[in-house]
Design brief:
By secondary structure, the protein is an alpha+beta fold. It has one domain. The strands form two sheets. The chain has a six-stranded mixed β-sheet, with helices on one face. β6 and β7 form a beta hairpin. The longest helix is centred in the last third of the chain and has 31 residues. The N and C termini lie far apart (75 Å).
Length: 176
């Protein structure tokens, strides 16, 4: 359990940023706070303590999943690796092409060579129940990074093409 003095020592994070602040290990909260000072911005905490997550650092309060709105996901990932603050770093892409990050402070690895992985999160429809279920396919970091780059390329191409069409429409000769 994190003490009130430990919470006060943080520069960016507070108890209200988390779903289960009383179940978190100070090592992950402190590491994320220090990482925010290096990266800037304000991450959206997506997940922290999960008691039912077997074989996961979430179940012992040493993992946090976060999303940095407006920041390049590849740069966040690179800075996390270079920071040596985390002993586990994962990047996930959902079926909308949005990337989020997993950070943990597992004690069975050192931060000079963190565990690094990627995953693809989908929400396919279960035809038996009629609901969408969350599935995670773990894959190579290269595949996830490639997916992020392709999504960026598609989005950028769309914006450029839209701008050209708008420019042409506004600049074309007016009929009298």
């Amino acid at each position: 359990m994190i003490t009130s003095d430990q919470w006060r020592s943080l520069l960016y994070l507070k108890t209200t940023d988390f779903s289960y602040p009383n179940n978190l290990d100070f090592s992950i909260v402190q590491a994320l706070d220090r990482f925010i000072s290096k990266v800037g911005g304000r991450p959206q905490i997506l997940d922290d303590y999960r008691p039912m997550a077997s074989d996961s650092q979430h179940s012992v309060g040493r993992a946090i999943d976060a999303y940095w709105p407006g920041f390049d996901a590849l740069q966040i990932n690179d800075k996390a690796i270079q920071s040596h603050l985390f002993s586990g770093i994962g990047i996930y892409v959902n079926d909308a092409g949005v990337a989020s990050h997993h950070f943990d402070t597992r004690i069975d690895r050192n931060t000079s060579s963190p565990a690094i992985w990627g995953g693809v999160i989908t929400h396919p429809l279960n035809t038996n129940t009629g609901t969408h279920e969350r599935l995670t396919e773990y894959t190579t970091m290269e595949k996830v990074l490639d997916m992020i780059k392709k999504k960026w390329f598609v989005s950028t191409s769309f914006l450029i093409l839209s701008g050209l069409i708008l420019w042409w429409f506004l600049k074309r000769p007016k009929k009298r």
